[in-house]
Structures are given as structure tokens and as C-alpha cells.
Amino acid sequence: MIDTLIARPHKIHEPVHFQLACPHCRAEIRPEENVARCQTGHSFIKRAEIWRFLSASRAAEFTDFLREYRIVREAEGWASPRAEYYRQLPHVAADDPQKDIWKIRARNFTRLLALVPDSAPLKILDVGAGNGWLSNKLALRGHHVAALDLSDDARDGLGARMNYASRFECYQAEFDRLPFREAQFDLVVFNAALHYSESLATTLQEAARVLNPRGRIIVLDSPFYARESSGTAMLAEREAKFAKDFGFDRAVRNVGFLTESRMNSAANNARLQIKIDNDRWSKKLR
């Protein structure tokens, strides 16, 4: 079923230019070649096919997190030197160290496709895009995709886009400071990413800001617990393991996991209607 869905031929459309806004002051940005400036004087560059919307001060805030994230992900085997590895995602070899998680993501990707019509190309924002595998698959199906992440790592971040033949735009930016003007995306997807938010309410409000009135936000593959205590215990266990295995000693800044109560509260603050499907693979917000 998954192979059939992926293999269907689609017309590949030329990528659109998304409407940009300064993540600091919200002023409109009109990029010129590889430089973008807002009316209040903030400037941003495009380097290695990635728009850099992190200021030096904000980038410094995430230095330790990205360094530790890269160490853990490399140790856990989330990357490969082979371009074919990325092109085949979410399908991996039987001996892949993360094969069980990728199996879940492959199943949920099939479910996602059932929610994404192919009758016309959609404008899709992939928030927390990581290595861009989902952006690649959606772009191959003819959609206009913006991939956004904090990491520009060449193996496990936006820099991995070099492995794909599809065309999609890449933006290094924060979840809570999206570099886009209002009401332009048909779909915003948090793919194994929303639990990295530092404030669910703020992150969903920002996603709702760039969503068109008939658009949807889809959240999938984040840790989801029925009870707050279970999620808190998971975080404590994980941090203890990281301290033991890697010597990390830091307080967790992101929310780490989702619960129905957390999502309902954040959705209400963002004035979103929420629907949770029966096996809780995803959340769809309008």
C-alpha cells in the first residue's frame, strides 16, 4: 500500500516563492537573490540553498542544544553517507538501528497522505523538517513545500537536502518565530517535532498565524501520554541516560511530550479546533 502511494506519478510543479516576513518585527521581506532585508534593517542570507533566519544572538541560544542533539542522533544511527538512504525514507533496511521507529513513521506517512489531496498542489510548511525526508516525499507528489528546522546539519538537518532530486525551499528558523507572512499555507505539519517546542501555546499560535482560513495543522509522531506523570517519568529517565552515556548536564527546555490536556489547552489558546484520532497517531487542528 505504501509503495503504491509513493510510486504514483505526479506532475512536478515549479516551486513557488513563499511570502516572507521578518521573524523579529514581522515586516514584509522581499528577497533579492541570496539576501533578504526588512524595512527596519534586519538582514538575512541564503547560503548552501538554506535561508538563514536565525540571528547571531538567537543562534547562540541553541548552540548547546544542537551540539548535544547531533551527538545523540549520530550515536543512535539516524544518518547515512549514502544518498539512497535519504531518498528511500521512511523505509529503511532491516538492519537499520532505528528500523522500529521508521516503521511507525512509514505507517503514519501513509495516513498523512490520506489527508493530503493530490487534486491540486498545496502550500505545505514542514516544521521541524530534520533531514527533509517528508518535504521530499510531499514535493515529489507535486506540492509546494517549505522545510523549516533549527539544524542545518548536512547529515541530519536541512543540509541533507542535497540528497534529494525534488525541489523544496529550506529555512533555518525557530518554531515560534516563523519567517512567513500570514495566512498562506494550506497545511502545517509537525512531523516528530512538536515536543521540541518550548511553549505549545506559542508554537501553535504561530503556526495558526501562517495558516490560511481553511488550512489544517497536523501533528504526528511526537511522544504522547495519557498521564502527565508518565511523560515526566520518561523525560527523567531519558535525561539520566544522556547524563550517563554522554555527560550532558542540563535542564530540559522543551516540553518533551504531549498529552491530551496539554494539546487541548494550547489549541484553545490558539483558537484552534482539535481532533484526535482513535489510535492517537496524529492531531488535526483547524
Question: Please, could you describe this protein's structure?
Answer:
By secondary structure, the chain is of the alpha/beta class. 34% of the residues lie in helices and 20% in strands. It contains nine helices and 14 strands. It has helices spanning 2-7, 56-61, 63-76, 83-88, 99-115, 133-140, 200-210, 228-246, 260-269, and strands at residues 20-21, 28-29, 35-37, 43-47, 50-52, 123-127, 144-149, 169-172, 185-191, 211-220, 224-225, 258-259, 274-276, 282-285. The protein has a ten-stranded mixed beta sheet, with helices on both faces. Strand 13 (274-276) and strand 14 (282-285) form a beta hairpin. The chain is globular.
Q: Name the beta content range.
A: 15-25%
Mean pLDDT score, rounded?
89
Helix/strand class: alpha/beta
- The helix/strand series, from N terminus to C terminus, equals HEEEEEHHHHEHEEEHEEHEHEE
Helix percent band = 25-40%
**Count of individual helical segments:** 9
Main beta sheet strand tally, sense and closure: 10 strands, mixed
Terminal-residue CA separation: 28 Å
Strand order of the largest sheet: 3-4-5-8-7-6-9-10-14-13
Low-confidence stretches: 1-10
- Label the overall shape: globular
Radius of gyration, in Å, reads 18 Å
Strand runs, count? 14
Based on the model shown, name its key terms.
single chain, alpha/beta, two-stranded antiparallel ribbon, 9 helices, 10-stranded mixed sheet, disordered N terminus, 34% helix, 286 residues
